[in-house]
Amino acid sequence: xxxxxxNRVDETRWQALDDGRIVGHxxxxxxxxxxxxxxIDVWRDEAFGRLAAAILADLPAPLxxxxxxxxxxLKSRWEQAGFAAARREHEYVLPxxxxxxxxxxxxxxxxxxxxxxTEADEGLLRSLHQAVREEAEAGAGWRTMPAEVLPRPNGPxxxxxxxxxxxxxxxxxxxxxxxxxxxRRARIGLVAVRAGEQRRGIGRALLAHALGSLHRAGxxxxxxxxxESNTAAITLFEGIGxxxxxxxxxxxxx
Length: 254
Fold this sequence. Notes:
This protein is an alpha+beta fold. The protein has helices at about 45-60, 70-80, 100, 120-140, 200-215, 230-240, and strands spanning about 5-10, 15-20, 20-30, 35-40, 65-70, 85-95, 110-115, 165-170, 170-180, 185-195, 220-225, 245-254. The two termini are about 30 Å apart.
């Protein structure tokens, strides 16, 4: 007999209880773009369906979740709850040592200057960031882009210039890379070049400077997530020695 009961603990967490013992919990978190991501962790199989039903009853659609590509069982459970695969992303580890990447920070495309975000004009940096998002919306679609460039429900996303490296041509800001400092392994959150400036080596130049700076600071690798449809980014990363280490499936219930 199924004796599992569900309690909502607070605005973001649910618990599954069996005779007073916790046998699972569910959580919800809001991403910077406003999307709601849910997760469930259980120690009793029957608790998953109960938690999923309670979360779906309490929260508005659409709801999202991420599942590792190596966990088809969890993916199947979410699909039974009405979720469907929406996108897939690959995870990569990138070396930072120029001897491994083959990148030379001293070499940049003709007429292009690379500078740290702390030396950039914040207004021009914000305009570039906005232009990148608009080009993504007009092209592959903003849902294929990292959370850093997705539209936010409550206005523009605060920018921390110290996390950016910027490419400038003739005074115009034409590309950027964003690095999130994480202990032991930094995250490459975004590499973007304006549509009219692509295929000129600017992305490689940006990564050369960003990864080179990490290497000099003692960080030997960085990681990144890339939508599987972003063939340009995949080619760029794999061309500098990045190794694919796994991936995630994003599922959504509308």
